[in-house]
Amino acid sequence: MRRPQDRLDILDKGFVRLVDAMGGDQAVVDAARVCYDSASKGEAQDRALIAYLMKHSHLTPFEHAVFKFHVSTPLFVARQWFRHRMASYNEVSGRYTEVKDDFYIPAQWRSQDSVNKQGSLASAGLDHRGLSAKLSAQVRGAVAAYRDLLAAGAARELARLVLPLNLYTQFYWTVNCRSLMNFISLRADEHAQWEMQQYALALAEFFRRRMPWTWEAFLEHAWKGRNPALTGGKP
Ligand SMILES: Cc1cc2nc3c(=O)[nH]c(=O)nc-3n(C[C@H](O)[C@H](O)[C@H](O)COP(=O)(O)OP(=O)(O)OC[C@H]3O[C@@H](n4cnc5c(N)ncnc54)[C@H](O)[C@@H]3O)c2cc1C
User: Which atom in ligand 1 lies closest to the alpha carbon of residue 193?
Assistant: First the structure.
């Protein structure tokens, strides 16, 4: 089934959905030009202005374009995501509601990178199906324990203690373009965990669609990372 344009599916059950947006390339231009009490000067000069702002890290005009996303990620991704303080968050509560039976089961496993201690490597030698089966069995046990605890009268806020980090959560994330660029710079880069990279790439796609001039300037002057999926195959 084709998904609507405003939603991109990520991993096995996650997604990023653009709920709302305010401003775009023109909002950046307008904010910059108010400094000089001048109006838009046509596309070529407005694009050049955005490139100039980006190149010289004059980034406050980019704060006038804002995105609101609805996101579904495993908890371990959300935990990394929430380190980004320059944004607004509201997350589903495991105290108010019973958690949904949604868990991330990787189809492809990676082995530990011995050089980059935070990193992992694609590995054909792993028993991918066996590892996924092991994780699925663990999840089934955790869900059964969660249900048992609830049935025995435990509060939702305590019963959830048996649930693993691959449980999916959902949150709203409102972020301005400046902070979004910081997020993409850090989390689309190959040093970020692969699962997190997939979300950052989806955010980048929404950013590119809505703010093409700023996206172009970002890639040219601000992006310092590595990820061929972001740069159309270029390293
Ligand atoms: C590959 C990778 C590995 C990581 N590993 C770890 C780890 O092992 N342990 C760990 O704890 N974290 C880790 N992090 C998280 C990282 O340290 C940041 O917390 C996270 O990336 C958010 O970045 P940020 O502070 O730029 O974003 P935001 O919090 O959104 O802040 C945006 C910008 O606002 C400014 N700012 C925000 N708050 C302050 C402040 N208090 N004082 C001054 N300026 C501020 C800074 O310029 C900052 O860049 C890792 C991140 C990455 C990408």
Answer: 1
Domain span at residue 140 reads 110-162
List Cα–Cα distances, 9 to 83, 91, 190, in angstroms: 23, 19, 20
Pick the residue whose CA is nearest to atom 22 on ligand 1: 84
Q: How far apart are CA 34 and CA 37, in angstroms?
A: 5
pLDDT of 3 reads 52
Whether the model pTM is above 0.90:
yes
129 is catalytic: no
- Based on the fold, state whether residues 42 and 143 are members of the same structural domain: no
Query: Residue 68's CB: how many other CB atoms inside 10 A?
Result: 15
Phi, psi of 187 (to 5 degrees): -105, -15
Residue 46: give its domain's CATH number: 3.30.1360.170
